Amino acid sequence: MEISGKVAIVTGAGAGIGAALARRLVADGARVVLADLDAAAATRVAESLGAAAVAVSGDVADDQVIRGLIDRAEAEFGPVDLYFANAGIAGGAGLDSTDAQWSAALEVNVLAHVRAARLLVPGWLTRGTGYFVSTASAAGLLTQLGSAPYSVSKHAAVGFAEWLSVTYGDKGIRVSCICPMGVDTQLLHTGFVPGEHAADAELAVKAVKTAGAVLSPDQVAEIIVAGVAAEHFLILPHPEVLKMYRHKGTDYDRWLDGMRRFQAALQG
């Protein structure tokens, strides 16, 4: 995949990985539509990138917002070549997470991807090309201590990306799934259910920060764009995740026991 000259949409682009992705894509010659709930943040990033970027605000789990993104991209730059489903939320803590928190996590972390693919894939099939990039998490391959909705929804995001790749990979559509551990973003520092669930939030943050290095969004964006250029399905900004994932698959019971011991150590 040659990035230069391509048209991309990046969701959750007002800050963090999304903003870094937009910057890197534009630097590599792409034109980008940035989407975020925070209109001011998305606009600031887009304005810093010049004529190659525009901002659109809205809930990217909403069909009409996604349609609007695609329409804006086509009007400004041409048909969409790449869709980065990057927006994400934590969603809740443990069994006391409310149905509303579960619904929000599934809407943003999974169904937003499904709805975007539903709108884009038919056109990509006609053109014979298209690229869907899902930001999941190492939690989608392993688990997330302290947050059941995050863990479950990220597993689902990985599963949907796998299904897309298997179903359409021989028809010109490429899929990548990004599964980082710690990234220096607002989600890591304040996104894991603060307040009444402070203990769960602290556990979630400790688990991520203890498991490996916390990378900058720019570092992650560089790895993602390189992975997309190489058309790799699984993009791992933290390579050690692959070793952890292999351990999980080799002996599931031993891995679960190890995770329980890791959790106890963090709580101690």
Descriptive notes:
Strands 3-2-1-4-5-6-7 form a seven-stranded parallel β-sheet, sandwiched between helices. The protein has 268 residues and is α/β, with parallel strands linked by helices. It is 54% helix and 13% strand. α1 crosses α8 (217-229), α3 (63-76) packs parallel to α4 (99-127) and α4 (99-127) packs parallel to α5 (148-168). The protein has one domain: Rossmann fold. β4, α4 and β5 form a beta-alpha-beta unit. The mean pLDDT is 94. The chain is globular.
Secondary structure topology:
Layout (H helix, E strand, L loop, with lengths): L6 E5 L4 H12 L3 E6 L2 H10 L4 E5 L5 H14 L5 E4 L13 H29 L2 E6 L12 H21 L4 E6 L7 H5 L7 H14 L5 H13 L4 E2 L4 H11 L1 H16 L1
Parallel strand pairs: 1-2, 1-4, 2-3, 4-5, 5-6, 6-7
Helix pairs in contact: 1-8, 3-4, 4-5, 9-10
Question: Briefly, what is this?
Answer:
The protein is α/β, with parallel strands linked by helices.
Looking at this protein, list some descriptive labels.
single chain; 268 residues; alpha/beta; Rossmann fold; 7-stranded parallel beta sheet
Question: What is the ordering of alpha helices and beta strands?
Answer: EHEHEHEHEHEHHHEHH
CATH superfamily: NAD(P)-binding Rossmann-like Domain
Overall pLDDT: 94
Q: Provide the CATH topology.
A: Rossmann fold
CATH class: Alpha Beta
Categorize the overall geometry: globular
| Structure annotation, total helices | 10
First-last Cα distance: 47 Å
- Describe the main β-sheet briefly: 7 strands, parallel
Domains (count): 1
Under the CATH scheme, which architecture would be assigned?
3-Layer(aba) Sandwich
Give the structural class.
alpha/beta
Write down how many β-strands occur, each being a DSSP E stretch of 2 or more residues.
7
Strand order within the widest sheet?
A: 3-2-1-4-5-6-7
**Strand content range:** 5-15%
Helix fraction bin: 40-55%
Give the quaternary arrangement of the chains. Answer: single chain
| Backbone CA Rg | 18 Å
In terms of per-residue confidence, which ranges show pLDDT below 50 for 5 or more consecutive residues?
Answer: none
Enzyme class: oxidoreductase
GO molecular function, one term: oxidoreductase activity
Pfam family, one: adh_short
Keywords: Oxidoreductase
